[in-house]
Design brief:
single chain; about 350 residues; Rossmann fold; 3 domains; six-stranded parallel β-sheet; 12 strands
Length: about 350
Amino acid sequence: MKVRMKDIAKLANVSEAAVSLVLNDKPSRISEKKKKEIKKIAAELNYIPNMAAQSLAKKASQTIGIVIPDIENPFFAKLCKQLEAQFRTSGYLTIILNTNDNFTIEKNLVQMLLNRGVDGLIIALSNESFSLPDQQAEFLEAIDRPFVLVDRNVPMQAVNQVYFDHQIGGKLATECLLAAGHRHIALMTGALPLPGTLAKIRGYQQAMSAYKLPIAENYLIETGYRFNDGLVQTSKLLALKELTAVIAANDMVAFGVMKELKKVGYQIPQTISLVGYDHLEIAEVLDITLTTVEQNTPQLASEAVTLLKKLLAQPLSAPQTIVLTPTLFMGQSIKKLN
């Protein structure tokens, strides 16, 4: 049988209003002893608050929308898990939606969440939206609820966003190969024109320039972020006869490259050295652990959740941009050259 506030009030010998004040931690003249008694009775009866009624009273739904481009990508799956857990501990329900990197779907899903009265949004923008910058800007300006962008940033707009510095990431990945003696290094860039992809290319170029090494155009290979992209694009790597090392767009692409290279008889790192990006947990259970750039998803989630909660409590005077620093995880996928 459903326990109601009046049941608690009867047992505590107080009014329903008093129970409501105590269970919602509202200021009152009720003694601490009586507050403890009320909360104890509620706990013993396994009282579950009526969220709909609370939402009406507070004019808030205690719901957060999370919109991501690809739920099959382990990076975004892990990020969603972290976001959901951290919001849950603060009393928020999350609705997680997938856009398949499609801008039209993204706009429709965000509007559906707004229509359902979510308090705020966490958004990882679709690849396609960056090909339509004017429409992307219009879309973001039209969102009338607090929101925070994660992972994929928009450099030219004043919005709240949290992301990793991919220029540092690209530089770290390239430098570890250069330090091992490699000079012919290909970069599987990821999708263009994502700002993170462009930043990663700048980091790669910065590291190569420090060694006064030329960058051949065919050593920059645009790809997606899926396992199959690694499989398909490996043929371009095989055409680069002097190649000794590859930086993959992410770990999933690196796994695809590994499989395809193995098929043609190449060994990692004996034939070609390989660096990934994201540091997925599965990378550590392979026969050869993958050297990879690590994006700390718990840190990314924590910063995004903290920022959105600040916005929900009180709008900030100016949008905040929080830039995090990636690190390098050294595995066994790099061969040291003389």
